[in-house]
Write a structure and sequence with these properties.
The chain has 177 residues and is mainly α. The chain is built from seven helices and three strands; from the N terminus they run ααβααββααα. Among the domains are: 75 residues, Winged helix-like DNA-binding domain superfamily/Winged helix DNA-binding domain (Arc Repressor Mutant, subunit A), CATH 1.10.10.10; 31 residues, no CATH class. A three-stranded antiparallel β-sheet has the order 1-3-2. The longest helix has 25 residues.
Length: 177
Amino acid sequence: MNPNDAPRSGPKSGSRDNSRDNSKPNAKPKSPGGDRRLGDFLCFAIYSANLAFGRAYRQGLDELGLTYPQWIAIVALWEQDGQTVSELGEKMFLESNTLTPILKKLESMGYLRRQRDPADERQVRVSLTDEGRRLREKGMHMNLVASTGLKPDEFARLQENVVTLRDNLIKATAEDA
């Protein structure tokens, strides 16, 4: 085969984010001037996968009486207790005006406590209560690796790739700001 005849790598569709729906093995790439389908957008594939994860977690979260963001806050605090609200917000990719109501609700449920940092009164530190730690342990049965249909190594590789994608997008948008 002549090297000039080799398939080109890189984007093959005319979508705005240069992605294509690979869920259909025989899907033909769209021409740059062609109509763009929703399935041609990588951003939509990730968005809709996020919604599917939410549905898959729903039964376990309902048993715990939590929403997904509340659960993520519990897990993040279990990993590192005593974080400031801003540190927790960075970890969860949430602004404080979105995170604060989540934390207030978890506090009213008895799962965490918020306290002013004695060293810096401007900072609020968040810690799990014993009940919050027990809740995290109770919820650890929610493991969706098998539900994805991926082998454990494929799951881990995909997770790493999505994290790389997220981090690159954050970096690219920070450079534009």
